[in-house]
Write a structure and sequence with these properties.
1 helix, 6-stranded mixed beta sheet, mainly beta, globular, 3% helix, 2 domains
Length: 152
C-alpha cells in the first residue's frame, strides 16, 4: 500500500478517549489543521514523554487487513523535527470520570491517572474528587508526573 509522509504536532499531554474501550490518546494536529483531534494510533518508534510538544515527520501506511479492533493505518516515526518543553506554569484539563470510570485512582499510596502517569494530589482536594468532573493539572518537576491544581 502507498506510504505517505506528513508532519504532525503532538500535544504535551494525553487524554482519555473512547475507542473499542477507554484508552489514552495523543492530541494531534497535521499540517494546516486548526483543531486538535484524537490520535488513537501508537506512533511506532516514538519515545513519548509528557510535558513536551512534538513536531514529527511520520509515514502513514494503510494496512490491508487490519485486525477487527485495530487501526487501518500504521504510523511510523521518520524523525523528531522538534521537541519543546512546555512552561512549568502551563495548565490543562483532563476528565476525572469517563463512561462511569474514575480516571484518577489511588493505588498503593500514590494517585495515578488512568494507569498511566503518577499524580500529586494536594490533601485539600482529595475530599472534592468525588463530586468533580474535571481536573486542572500541571506537569510536575520531573515531567513524568502531574500535579492536580483544582477540580470542577
Amino acid at each position: 500500500m502507498p506510504e505517505k509522509t506528513e508532519t504532525m504536532t503532538i500535544q504535551h499531554y494525553k487524554v482519555p478517549c473512547q475507542g473499542e474501550s477507554i484508552q489514552m490518546c495523543y492530541l494531534v494536529k497535521t499540517q494546516g489543521q486548526a483543531d486538535w483531534e484524537y490520535g488513537y494510533d501508537e506512533i511506532q518508534g516514538l519515545e513519548y514523554e509528557w510535558g513536551y510538544v512534538y513536531t514529527l515527520e511520520v509515514s502513514k501506511t494503510t494496512i490491508d487487513n487490519p485486525p477487527q479492533d485495530g487501526s487501518s493505518i500504521a504510523i511510523k516515526l521518520v524523525k523528531v523535527v522538534k521537541k519543546e518543553a512546555v512552561a512549568a506554569s502551563t495548565s490543562f484539563e483532563l476528565p476525572l470520570m469517563m463512561e462511569g470510570t474514575a480516571m484518577l485512582e489511588k493505588g498503593s499510596g500514590d494517585w495515578i491517572y488512568f494507569q498511566t502517569i503518577p499524580v500529586v494530589v494536594p490533601s485539600d482536594l482529595t475530599t472534592k474528587l468525588d463530586q468533580a468532573q474535571t481536573g486542572v493539572f500541571q506537569h510536575g518537576d520531573k515531567k513524568q508526573t502531574l500535579t492536580l491544581l483544582s477540580v470542577k
